[in-house]
Amino acid sequence: MNTFDVAIVGGGLAGLTASIYLAKAGKKVIVLEKSSQFGGRGMTINKNGICMNLGAHALYRGGAAFITFNELGLNLPGGIPSTKAHGIWKGDIFTCPST
After folding, report:
1. How confident is the model over 5-25, as a mean pLDDT?
2. What sections of the protein cross the membrane (predicted)?
3. Domain containing 92: what range?
4. Buried (b) or exposed (e) across 54-93, using 16+ Cβ within 10 A?
5. Could you report the per-residue pLDDT of 26-85, keeping only the tens digit for each?
6. 60 and 73 share one domain
7. pTM for the whole thing?
8. Which of 45, 44, 34, 32 shows the shortest CA–CA distance to 4?
9. How many distinct structural domains can be found in the chain?
């Protein structure tokens, strides 16, 4: 049977970041995630050529999270967000008004 120093429940942004810091500190860590993939709500899908953030947040190339990722040696693809906004309503993509 495997034993761990720390069990983290949830493989979202916070859980994954905590697991990396704990592992770097020499702890044996397991991350438990109920979904079929890690990342929590911090993900983007491509629908008909338009990238859409699924969570209530998005990570762009700046800010505290970006600094933390650089510190951990994580290279995240991305760029400057578009000023155009799109939404999905009843399966169709709509351009949101900018004013």
Report:
1. 95
2. 6-23
3. 43-99
4. eeeeebeeeeebeeebeeeeeeeeeeeeeeeeeeeeeeee
5. 999 999 999 988 888 877 888 888 777 777 666 666 778 788 888 888 877 666 666 777
6. yes
7. 0.65
8. 32
9. 2
